[in-house]
């Protein structure tokens, strides 16, 4: 098959159909003859010509059989569903019906042209040997049980019958008046659909009929299309009416004259005859026919696609010269003209990709190929991808082209290397560098080294980024180290190159050199490097450098790894930097008060020099620092609070209180100190010191009410001394006293209530009866508590502790006559067994 040239207009909208010209044997036929009609079966084609010949061809157009039927035009060929029987009629009135694989047949000559013939779809079956012919009359031929053909007239008197379509039990035909439908099963004519434009000659603009399914008929005549649906009539409405009726569900006008119709899902494929005005003369010329796909609506239609077809000799053709046949099995549409036959078929995924590539929509083409890779036959995903990459490179979108390489090239190492060298040739190695494979699939090391050298020449930051992102085994590490070293000779202080060199040394496991560079640069990754590669032995002489860089991180690292760098070693290294030594020892003390105990004496001076706010907490928490040394340092530096604490710690509370009163003059601290010590002599000293200082007296009156009897202070106040806020202080004392009294009374009430409640509970418990039966034994003699002869008199003593005794087994009462105790419980404690319950009988 050859493609039809100029078959569609150049548009951004993708066509729905593709076209090919039927060639091979068909070409030879049409060179010497002209096509007059054609019928399509799923397996083959049947072509009738103007010279009275009928050809059977395969789908590719190759001739398989030839029949000499007449010397004039073949008007119609009809096939049954099986494709085993054919009906042929010609302009000279001949009608032939015969089997392609059997000798049975029907031959008849009429005295008028027979325009159409139609076989019953199930003609192969013996009980469906029926066909109809259309000339001036619609004749039905049926073969009876005697193997003879019976003829009956279904319709006549309305002009020549130009078209017949038989589907299941329904026969539709068109004459000069309109379209009629006949039900062969009920032998009833169902409807008459009149043609709209009666001005058009029926022989020049013939009616097109097409069954969409067993009940839906599509009628095209002139520029009008109607869709008719055969429906069952309600039995209550029948009377003398046919059992079926027709409802027109859609009727609309088109722009051009209709030559043929075919269904496509819920849409219609329509072949149009087009005329256009001549530029030179005032007359219409025949234009290229159009094949449109339309969406029928109730009163209009929507155009889905439209293609103008360049068929041979289209300028000489009339509307009646074109026909549209279709193959239901494969959705193939045949456009028949006298000198050309074009096949239209739905575009597949390969055609869709072709169109996308042609429109340079490579992204969509690649996506479509990936989604339908199992169904495409003519395309390869990788080849489409390569076309896309070439297009991006040609349009200088290098970054997008490089990004697509990752997706398109996949695991093809040869293609990868070719693309890398192409990017090198156009000076765009940087673009492809970030997309190179670097996982399990890798290129040759020389490829990666080539890109690194390119970056090293022009972009230090980009070079450093690649070194960080690429695994160290992608390339020859030593070669890159040498290249970086050479560049550092020209720029020895370049921090980017130095950092990158340290990373390269790390990849090469030369951690000591990497550590030196990181420390020199004060790089944040130095601690991570030490931890990751256990470089503690290498930093023993670099502790000061680490502390200068970041004290907090350095100290945390040293303390977390005491087993690798001892406390003594760190103290030794920091001996000449006391401010750093203090930071280390302070954090060590915070973690564990006892680990650095031998350095606590040294820490006193360090706290005093660099961190006084933490000196007092240190003195409080440490149990290993010498108090005399600490007191000496604090007194030298006049640290009053620390001195007070040390004096109280050493037992010299009076001296400590004196310092608070004299040095700090802070009565609140003095009172707090006295409260902490809880020493009556200290309170007396505090009162004595404060008795001539009215502000101090006010402070004492406000705070000592709960620790010392205020009367002791009030009695010692000199008469006539003016004391600030004395009234408020006395009121507070009285209020505190009342509060204490209320608290005591409340506690007493609660205690009495609880005691009474418990006493009542105990009384109720003790008043309960105790079950005594044969299973109980005497706790003294271990015999059963009840005698075997219950008629005899016996005495049993049951204590509240539930221990039981025979009365004679109990010892005599003690010092208090009549009061007995449980021997068992009284041996443990004198308590619950002291009461008794005596049973007598």
Automatic annotation (TrEMBL):
Extract the signal peptide range.
Answer: none
Is this entry keyworded Ligase? no
CHCR repeat start and end residues: 555-699
Q: Which GO terms describe its cellular component?
A: clathrin-coated vesicle; cytosol; early endosome membrane; Golgi apparatus; HOPS complex; late endosome membrane; lysosomal membrane
Keyword check for Transport: yes
Query: What is the superkingdom listed in this entry's lineage?
Result: Eukaryota
**Cellular localization per UniProt:** Cytoplasm, Cytosol; Early endosome membrane; Endosome membrane; Late endosome membrane
Main site of residence? Answer: cytoplasm
Keywords carried by this UniProt record: Autophagy, Cytoplasm, Cytoplasmic vesicle, Endosome, Golgi apparatus, Lysosome, Membrane, Metal-binding, Protein transport, Transport, Zinc, Zinc-finger
| Biological role | Plays a role in vesicle-mediated protein trafficking to lysosomal compartments including the endocytic membrane transport pathways.
User: What is this protein called in UniProt?
Assistant: Vacuolar protein sorting-associated protein 41 homolog
């Amino acid at each position: 098959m050859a493609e039809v040239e100029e078959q569609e207009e150049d548009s951004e909208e993708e066509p729905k159909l593709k076209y090919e010209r039927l060639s091979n044997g068909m070409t030879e036929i049409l060179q010497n003859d002209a096509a007059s009609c054609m019928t399509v079966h799923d397996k083959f084609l049947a072509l009738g010509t103007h010279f009275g010949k009928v050809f059977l061809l395969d789908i590719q157009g190759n001739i398989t059989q030839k029949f000499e039927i007449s010397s004039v035009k073949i008007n119609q060929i009809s096939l049954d569903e099986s494709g085993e029987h054919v009906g042929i009629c010609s302009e000279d009135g001949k009608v032939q019906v015969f089997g392609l694989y059997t000798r049975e047949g029907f031959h008849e000559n009429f005295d008028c042209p027979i325009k159409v013939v139609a076989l019953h779809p199930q003609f192969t079956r013996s009980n469906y040997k029926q066909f109809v012919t259309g000339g001036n009359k619609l004749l039905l031929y049926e073969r009876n049980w005697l193997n003879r053909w019976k003829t009956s007239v279904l319709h006549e008197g309305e002009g020549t019958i130009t078209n017949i379509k038989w589907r299941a039990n329904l026969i539709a035909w068109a004459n000069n008046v309109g379209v009629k439908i006949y039900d062969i099963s009920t032998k009833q004519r169902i409807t008459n659909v009149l043609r709209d434009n009666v001005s058009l000659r029926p022989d020049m603009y013939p009616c097109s009929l097409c069954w969409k399914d067993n009940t839906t008929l599509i009628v095209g005549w002139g520029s009008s299309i109607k869709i008719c649906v055969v429906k069952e009539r309600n039995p209550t409405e029948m009377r003398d009416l046919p059992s079926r009726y027709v409802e027109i569900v859609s009727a609309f006008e088109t722009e051009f004259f209709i030559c043929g119709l075919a269904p496509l899902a819920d849409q219609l494929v329509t072949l149009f005859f087009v005329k256009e005005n001549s530029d030179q003369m005032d007359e219409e010329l025949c234009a290229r026919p159009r094949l449109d796909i339309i969406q029928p609506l109730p009163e209009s239609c929507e155009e889905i696609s439209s293609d103008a077809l360049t068929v041979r000799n289209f300028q000489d053709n009339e509307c009646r010269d074109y026909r549209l046949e279709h193959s239901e099995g494969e959705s193939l549409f045949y456009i028949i003209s006298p000198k050309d036959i074009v096949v239209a078929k739905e575009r597949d995924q390969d055609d869709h990709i072709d169109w996308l590539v042609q429109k340079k929509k490579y992204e969509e083409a690649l996506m479509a190929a990936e989604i339908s890779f199992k169904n495409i036959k003519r395309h390869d995903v990788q080849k489409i991808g390569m076309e896309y990459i070439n297009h991006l490179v040609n349009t200088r979108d290098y970054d997008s082209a490089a990004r697509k390489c990752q997706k398109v090239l996949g695991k093809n190492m040869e293609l990868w290397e070719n693309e890398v060298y192409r990017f090198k040739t156009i000076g765009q190695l940087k673009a492809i560098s970030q997309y190179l494979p670097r996982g399990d699939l890798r290129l040759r090391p020389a490829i990666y080294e080539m890109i690194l050298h390119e970056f090293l020449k022009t972009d230090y930051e980009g070079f450093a980024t690649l070194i960080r992102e690429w695994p160290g085994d992608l390339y020859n590490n030593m070669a890159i180290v040498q290249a970086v070293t050479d560049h550092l000779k020209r720029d020895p202080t370049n921090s980017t190159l130095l950092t990158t060199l340290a990373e390269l040394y790390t990849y090469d496991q030369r951690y000591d050199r990497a550590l030196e560079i990181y420390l020199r640069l004060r790089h944040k990754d130095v601690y991570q490097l030490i931890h990751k590669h256990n470089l503690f032995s290498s930093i023993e002489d670099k502790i000061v450098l680490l502390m200068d860089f970041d004290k907090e991180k350095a100290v945390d690292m040293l303390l977390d790894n005491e087993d690798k760098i001892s406390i003594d070693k760190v103290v030794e290294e920091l001996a000449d930097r006391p401010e750093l030594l203090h930071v280390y020892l302070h954090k060590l003390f915070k973690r564990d008060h006892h680990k650095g105990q031998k350095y606590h004496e040294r820490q006193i001076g360090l706290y005093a020099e660099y961190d006084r706010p933490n000196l007092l907490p240190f003195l409080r928490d440490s149990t290993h620092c010498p108090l005399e040394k600490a007191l000496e340092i604090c007194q030298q530096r006049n640290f009053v609070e620390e001195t007070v604490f040390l004096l109280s710690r050493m037992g010299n509370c009076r001296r400590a209180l004196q310092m608070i009163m004299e040095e700090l003059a802070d009565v609140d601290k003095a009172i707090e100190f006295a409260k902490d010590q809880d020493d009556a002599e200290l309170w007396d000293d505090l009162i004595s010191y404060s008795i001539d200082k009215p502000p101090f007296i006010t402070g004492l009156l406000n705070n000592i009410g709960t620790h010392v009897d205020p009367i002791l202070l009030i009695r010692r106040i000199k008469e006539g001394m003016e004391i600030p806020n004395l009234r408020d202080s006395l009121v507070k004392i009285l209020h505190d006293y009342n509060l204490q009294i209320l608290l005591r009374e409340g506690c007493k009430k609660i205690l009495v209530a609880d005691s009474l409640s418990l006493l009542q509970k105990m009384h109720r418990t003790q008043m309960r009866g105790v079950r005594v039966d044969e299973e109980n034994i005497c706790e003294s003699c271990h015999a059963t508590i009840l005698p075997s002869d219950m008629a005899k008199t016996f005495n049993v003593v049951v204590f509240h502790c539930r221990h039981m005794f025979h009365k004679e087994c109990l010892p005599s009462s003690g010092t208090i006559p009549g009061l007995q105790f449980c021997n068992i419980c009284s041996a443990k404690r004198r308590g619950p067994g002291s009461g008794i319950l005596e049973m007598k009988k």
